[in-house]
């Protein structure tokens, strides 16, 4: 981690990286490209390649990396300025317990600087709990502002809290803007704000294809209030080479050598593949891949591994591979179209089923529709022992695909007694594996 203070000390061991399967590595970006058109009709999606030749990373298709995020300098400066702490921002501090019952959160250093803690340690964009709202209300001078915060934190204000805080994803930055007289001591923020967590990203490529590179693709999250995703926003800025100060913007770079101030490095690490989202060694089993949008990313690596295995064992027996992909418009955001059609032409992929949600007079608008259209084939493949991999948004695709698979079995299979239980059993047997994100 790139520290502002010469010494950063925690009350105990340094916080562990969640699901870590490697040490932290500061990777340079060797290549980048935009995968979607520059059009308001689609999201901004990019692919970047990290140079990891000097790391000890080993990985396979389906694995993920964690990227250590940083809070933007403009947001950190806003907090410091609002709390009149700018002059103290870079001075070393030491936290002391007020009494025996007090406890310093494990993710907050007992010795550091306020700027580093606000940049590296605290999640400034987290959803605010009622207890936090109540705590900061006590330091709100203006009566009307204080009463609103007290109401939002009360039992009577539960509906308003859900409507105006949770649903609108209001964070501490918004609170200080909406309630300018709210100026709690920095200790309150240190006590209540949670840890700034690493962001996981699926690896696009296979280790067998290139062991010295890790590719990821991502869509830039537009969060409103002129905010983008912490990590995706910085990576986009780097790709577009905007006029930013790379040393300070989000500080998601590390200057290991002061003579190389232009070198942009991103702290990444390998994550444990707890869900088992990876190909088995037995490739004779039929495979079904379902990944709309950037959910297709890990399947590029899967197909690379299958192609590698076929080249290595040209006389071997391999199961069929069917892939379902969806986007808005084939002219705008059909990401990895060239690669997927290449796999299809080389018989690595047996069928490519696509759906376009924003194309007029198109009956197959979503991957769920495409799966249902192939329902009879899907039902037979499931009975033949197919393994199904789904990658996408947990709020939509994960549950909807499961429902569609149950409908396929219900309509086209008369042998199984309870199709819902069968899919659940497939999950337990790791024949139906989902890699979903929030």
From TrEMBL:
GO molecular function, one term: [methionine synthase] reductase (NADPH) activity
GO annotation, biological process: homocysteine metabolic process; methionine biosynthetic process
Signal peptide, first to last residue: none
UniProt cross-references to InterPro entries, sorted A to Z: CysJ-like_FAD-binding (IPR003097), FAD-bd_FR_type (IPR017927), Flavoprot_Pyr_Nucl_cyt_Rdtase (IPR001709), FNR_nucleotide-bd (IPR039261), NADPH_Cyt_P450_Rdtase_alpha (IPR023173), OxRdtase_FAD/NAD-bd (IPR001433), Riboflavin_synthase-like_b-brl (IPR017938)
The protein's required cofactors: FAD
Superkingdom per UniProt: Eukaryota
Domain (FAD-binding FR-type): residue spans on this chain: 22-267
EC number assigned by the record: 1.16.1.8
Pfam families (UniProt xref): FAD_binding_1 (PF00667), NAD_binding_1 (PF00175)
Gene3D superfamilies: NADPH-cytochrome p450 Reductase, Chain A, domain 3, Nucleotide-binding domain of ferredoxin-NADP reductase (FNR) module, Translation factors
GO CC terms, sorted: cytosol
Keyword set, alphabetical order: FAD, Flavoprotein, Oxidoreductase
EC class: oxidoreductase
Protein name: Methionine synthase reductase
Organism name: Bombyx mori (Silk moth)
């Amino acid at each position: 981690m790139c520290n502002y203070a010469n010494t950063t000390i925690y009350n105990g061991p340094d916080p562990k990286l969640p699901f870590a399967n490697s040490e932290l590595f500061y990777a340079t970006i060797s290549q980048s490209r935009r995968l979607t058109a520059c059009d308001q009709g689609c999201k901004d999606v990019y692919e970047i390649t990290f140079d990891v030749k000097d790391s000890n990373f080993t990985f396979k298709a389906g694995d993920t990396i964690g990227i250590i995020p940083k809070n933007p300098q403009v947001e950190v400066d806003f907090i410091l300025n609002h709390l009149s702490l700018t002059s103290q921002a870079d001075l070393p501090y030491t936290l002391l317990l007020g009494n025996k019952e007090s406890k310093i959160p494990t993710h907050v250093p007992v010795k550091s600087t306020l700027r580093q803690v606000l940049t590296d340690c605290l999640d400034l964009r987290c959803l605010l709990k009622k207890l936090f709202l109540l705590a900061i209300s006590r330091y709100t001078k203006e009566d009307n502002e204080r009463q609103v915060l007290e109401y939002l934190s009360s039992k009577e204000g539960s509906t308003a809290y859900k409507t105006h805080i949770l649903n609108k994803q209001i964070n501490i930055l918004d609170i200080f803007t909406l309630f300018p007289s709210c100026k709690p001591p920095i200790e309150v923020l240190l006590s209540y704000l949670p840890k700034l967590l690493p962001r996981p990203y699926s690896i696009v490529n296979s280790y067998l294809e290139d062991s010295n590179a890790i590719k990821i693709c991502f869509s830039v999250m537009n969060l409103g209030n002129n905010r983008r995703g912490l990590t995706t926003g910085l990576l986009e800025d780097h790709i577009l080479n905007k006029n930013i100060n790379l040393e300070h913007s989000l500080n998601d770079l590390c200057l290991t050598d002061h003579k190389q101030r232009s070198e942009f490095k991103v702290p990444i690490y390998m994550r444990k593949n707890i869900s088992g989202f990876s190909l088995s060694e037995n490739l004779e089993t039929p495979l079904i891949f379902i990944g709309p949008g950037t959910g297709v990313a890990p399947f590029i690596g899967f197909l690379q591994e299958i192609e590698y295995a076929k080249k290595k064992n040209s006389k071997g027996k391999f199961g069929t591979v069917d892939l379902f992909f969806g986007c808005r418009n084939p002219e705008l955001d059909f990401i990895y179209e060239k690669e997927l059609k290449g796999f299809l032409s080389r018989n690595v992929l047996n069928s490519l089923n696509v759906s376009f949600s924003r194309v007029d007079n198109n009956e197959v608008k979503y991957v769920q529709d495409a799966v249902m259209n192939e329902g009879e084939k899907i039902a037979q493949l499931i009975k033949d022992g197919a393994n199904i991999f789904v990658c996408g948004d947990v709020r939509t695709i994960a549950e909807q695909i499961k429902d569609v698979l149950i409908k396929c079995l219900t309509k086209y299979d008369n042998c199984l007694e309870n199709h819902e239980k069968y899919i659940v059993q497939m999950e337990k047997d790791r024949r139906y594996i989902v890699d979903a994100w929030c």
